[in-house]
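Batch job 17 of 40 flagged for manual review because the log was empty.
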Amino acid sequence: MLPKIISNITLAFIAIILAYMLAPLFKEFFDGIFNPHKKTNKSHSKEEFDEMVRRKIERMSISGSSAPAESQSSKSTKSGHRTLLSYFEEKQMFASEEDLKFFQGLLSSLQWGDFKEGEEILNRLRKDYKFDKEELNALINPFIKQFFTKDELLKLGKINQSKLTKEAFISYATTMFLFQNLDRIEHKRYENNVHIFLINYSTKSTNHVGVLESFIKDELITLPKRYEALFESFTKKINASYDELFAILPIDESKLTVEFSSLKDESDRKKKYKKLVQTYHPDKWSTKFKSKIIDDRLNENFNKIQNIYNKTK
């Protein structure tokens, strides 16, 4: 009797141990049948746990570093609706909040095709040029609508230290509008042929001697349809080119004769003559632009000055 009791107790003890050991397996088996979508806890090794921690830290770091960029993004970008300006907002290319608002205003005006910025472009152009306002007024809005593109904004950023500003946009657009309408616009200071020559010289990076010779021979000049520069930089370059190339420009003999004749004091005449010699003497010409055609023009102009000075004594 006693051995039987001891045997039963031993079997029961073994059964309890087996049930304890096998319980998780049964639980996982039945969960797989009756609750297949329930997430199961998974144990991780030390290496796996360390890797999880590292990835979590990286995600937190990336989230923190992107916060400033998100602060500049517009509400439309955050909501998932991208616009022409989204890329530039993400790259933080707008110099200030005011500049961003300016470009947002341009974007809103696209649907109407009526841009108040057109008047600012014409006013800037009017400082150095004269034109028919009504004629250009009809062209300015279609120009801005065509000009206001991602490609042009990228080019503007390239020439403006990777920043987009209202000032730079108006300036850049003025230059582009000028080149599209050169046949409708006249310079206030330079004759048309001289103006075309100065543009041709200023926008070329090579073969300047060829440009000068073509002008002297009065050959037809074909200008580019576009020139990527801020308007102030362009006009500054034009004026600097005029000062550099003044000696080869045609001399107005009638005008110079009147100027000498109006000077009654001989000392004033000599002062004027000396000043002209300093400008037109062939030896004063830049040695980097030398050719027979250029030398002939320099000598021709210098001889004209001498002859007019002697005739008006």
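Reviewer: the log was empty due to a logging misconfiguration, but the result itself is present. Residues 2-34 form the longest helix (33 residues). Unflagging and moving on to job 18.
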